[in-house]
Design brief:
This protein is mainly α and 159 residues long. It has one domain. It is 82% helix and 0% strand. α2 runs antiparallel to α3. The radius of gyration is 17 Å and the shape is globular.
């Protein structure tokens, strides 16, 4: 497959959403290594229900952009599949590895995928990939950090 011919618009929204949501959920395992069996069902919900909601929103957005019907449906299908694939990858990693190792592997793979997407986009835009990679990975790390802080605050109030 020629990477230059791939329509990134069909996969980047879904992949990015799944990566950021996934690493935010998995990131909670650093503070609560016993939470693995809570994170896996959460990722399944993200992979199915939240994915449908986001994909539906993207579908309507593409309709509003007056794209051809085939383009809208292909974008919808690819978006859903990309997000589902990333979510299932994170779930598989959680099932295979011990909790903290799985969390680290998921975060590293997630950030690698964001780096790869950012690099490809920057090259297509003919801009410096470093700036785009730093921006996108930095935002993902901010989400991971904020979700970990929020999880710790919530956990401390529940106890």
């Amino acid at each position: 497959m020629n990477i230059k011919k791939v329509d990134l618009r069909k996969i980047t929204f879904g992949m990015t959403s799944a990566i950021v949501t996934g690493i935010a959920a998995v990131g909670t395992l650093f503070a609560n290594p016993n939470g693995k069996m809570l994170v896996i069902p959460s990722l399944l919900i993200f992979a199915i229900a939240d994915n449908i909601a986001d994909t539906f929103g993207m579908h309507i957005y593409q309709d509003s952009e007056l794209l051809k019907e085939k383009q809208v449906w292909m974008g919808t299908l690819f978006n859903y599949c990309a997000r589902l694939a990333v979510s299932l990858l994170f779930i598989a990693i959680l099932l295979i590895f011990p909790t903290v190792t799985a969390a680290i592997v998921c975060v590293v793979i997630g950030l690698f995928l964001l780096t790869l997407i950012s690099y490809i986009i920057a090259k297509r835009r003919k801009t410096n990939p470093v700036f785009m990679i730093v921006e996108h990975v930095g935002l993902a790390i901010a989400v991971l950090t904020l979700s970990s802080i929020a999880g710790n605050i919530i956990r401390s109030q529940i106890r």
